[in-house]
Amino acid sequence: MRVNGQAFRTIWQTDAGGDVAVIDQTLLPFVFEVRTLRRVEEAATAIRDMVVRGAPLIGVTAAYGVALALREHPGDASLATAIDSLVATRPTAVNLRWAAERMRRVVAPLPPVDRAARAYTEAAAMAEEDVASCAAIGRHGLTLLRELAHGRGGEPINVLTHCNAGWLACVDWGTALAPVYAAHEAGLPVHVYVDETRPRSQGAFLTAFELGAHGVPYTVIADNAGGHLMQQGEVDVCIVGSDRTTATGDVANKIGTYLKALAARDNGVPFYAALPFSTIDWTMDDGVHEVPIEERCSREVTHMRGRTAGGNLDEVEVVAPGSRVRNPGFDVTPARLVTGLITERGVAAASRAGLAALYSGHERH
Ligand code: MRU
Q1: Considering the domain boundaries, does residue 135 fall inside one?
Q2: Which of 280, 283, 309, 336 is deepest in the core (most CB within 10 A)?
Q3: Which atom of ligand 1 is least distant from the CA of 240?
């Protein structure tokens, strides 16, 4: 996607030597800065500190992290340590484990001398696949949006989204926002209600930034406003991303997604999750009880980050000092509240049968 007229992806290899560049998402939307990752430890820190974030992007970053480790030490111990350290960074998004295990399967059988080059090739292939998957999600989602637009006389479709599941969360295009970009490109009028998404404000900071940069009309709302807007008939469809979707169609996503799904059901608003196959955890059936939910530090709740009137990035305290705080990063929306799953293969019912109809056993790995 374009930033100030220049085409960017969220991650790329910078040179023949194999350094990896990412956009520092902790500084957006106020500062656009590219950061170079040279060692696996830097890749792990970038994922943990959310310099890169979003399930597909952290998967691809982990893949490049394995390549960085093998560039330095191509032996078995280095491979195992790299994978363990990368997978431990964030527990909820299954894409991380999926990507790391794919790297292990591909490089482990090779002689150490061949591993690094193969790892870079595989990481690059993963990045390309993610772009292709997101583009396909966009095409399938566009069909849904066209159906919703039918008979509306050119009135914009109002989409509500939570967190950031746009191109910044992937390599390009995004998952939940891919149908929005596809609609915008196709000339179908679309407007997005962007949940602010406290505590880290991925909606207010990142989704607003990327929709604005692309010229898609949007309105930022406080996290608590979505239910009211749905009651007033101002939301036509909710589309969110996912960090892990179980084989039965339960959707783990950014904290607060579940509440939007409840409000959507109460108001007859269709609620879709958009995700590539790397987000499906075929080993899990009961998302509510099985998905590991990341607990993040209390400071994300007690403090807010932003730009001061003087133009500096700073933090302010927003909770009574001494308060006890919880900060679960994700929640699980049960499949029964999900209208459908928009995947690169098409739109599936949120159920075991729905997913199985799109993916045969062989393709699950
Ligand atoms: O904590 P984050 O910012 O990594 O959470 C991101 C989300 O919850 C996204 O909705 C999800 O990863 C899907 S991204 C295409």
Answers
A1: no
A2: 280
A3: 10
